[in-house]
From TrEMBL:
GO molecular function, one term: ATP binding
Annotated binding of ATP, by residue: K11, G12, G13, T14, G15, K16, T17, T18
Name of the featured protein: Cell division ATPase MinD, archaeal
Keywords: ATP-binding, Cell cycle, Cell division, Nucleotide-binding
Lineage: Archaea, Methanobacteriati, Methanobacteriota, Stenosarchaea group, Methanomicrobia
Organism (species): Methanoregula formicica (strain DSM 22288 / NBRC 105244 / SMSP)
CobQ/CobB/MinD/ParA nucleotide binding domain ranges (all copies): 6-211
Pfam families named in the record: CbiA
């Protein structure tokens, strides 16, 4: 059975794309048939950080009804399958986010894990990924605005019939881990399923267009993401 996880946040820039790409890569490396779909159709970044920005067909065309999903599916790191979105404004305008439901119908037959990189905010294109997932994972930074926006996304998820598995706290100062975990669980009311430290190799890896878990496998952020992936995959 496929497991569909949407990686969401509320606030922009918390690390959703970084987490999606690296979690997907790790699940693939663990031998799981995994697909990552970039549902951030307005501000698509998955293709950019994987060096797939020039692919001929993207999720935009699929959501516009002019291509099928297999044409927009590419091989990424460690065998991860990637469905990037396009970066043109016109492509975004022609894409119908509701069609994500049909795309999912196709993908669930083929994969064990489907990760959906969601947009920030609470627009229509952001709501569909929250509703279609088996579980939503919130990526939150240890600052008030990020926590408040994540709470809003949690409530929205429940309103549209989705379920939040928990949150990943990203860009944490390692000395403050205990305090921030307790605070987050209290305010958000969901378990903390992972803590990723602030790690300058994250940006370096993304400039090199290689996931940090491959480029710097022993870096603190990589180790944290590997732990989360192993938990999701149910391996030691
Ligand atoms: P989002 O998809 O939520 O907008 P991104 O994944 O694009 O966020 O990350 C935003 C920025 O933060 C990127 O420049 C990324 O390299 C950086 N970043 C993400 N996680 C970390 C981390 N743990 N340590 C340092 N920088 C990070
Ligand atoms: Mg993003």
């Amino acid at each position: 059975m496929v497991k569909v996880y949407t990686i969401a946040s509320g606030k922009g820039g918390t690390g959703k794309t970084t987490v999606s790409v690296n979690l997907g890569t790790m699940l693939a490396q663990l031998g799981k048939e995994t697909c990552l779909m970039d549902a951030d159709i307005g501000m698509a970044n998955v293709g950019l950080i994987l060096g797939m920005q020039d692919v001929p067909v993207t999720l935009h065309e699929v959501l516009a009804g002019t291509a099928v999903v297999s044409d927009a599916t590419y091989s990424g790191p460690a065998g991860l399958k990637v469905i990037p979105s396009g970066i043109s404004l016109q492509g975004f305008q022609q894409a119908d986010p509701e069609k994500i439901r049909d795309v999912m119908g196709e993908l669930v037959k083929k994969f064990e894990f489907l990760l959906i990189d969601a947009p920030a905010g609470i627009s229509r294109d952001g709501v569909v990924p929250l509703a279609v997932a088996d579980e939503v994972i919130l990526v939150v930074n240890p600052e008030l605005s990020s926590i408040v926006d994540a709470l809003k996304t949690k409530i929205l998820t429940e309103v549209v019939g989705g379920h939040v598995l928990g949150c990943i706290i990203n860009r944490v100062d390692q000395e403050k881990t205990d305090v921030i975990t307790k605070k987050m669980e209290k305010v958000l009311g969901v378990p903390v399923i992972g803590i990723i430290p602030e790690d300058s190799n994250t940006r370096r890896a993304s400039s090199a267009k290689v996931p940090i878990v491959i480029k710097y496998p022993s870096s603190p952020a990589s180790l944290a993401i590997k732990r989360i992936a192993a938990d999701l995959a149910g391996v030691e």
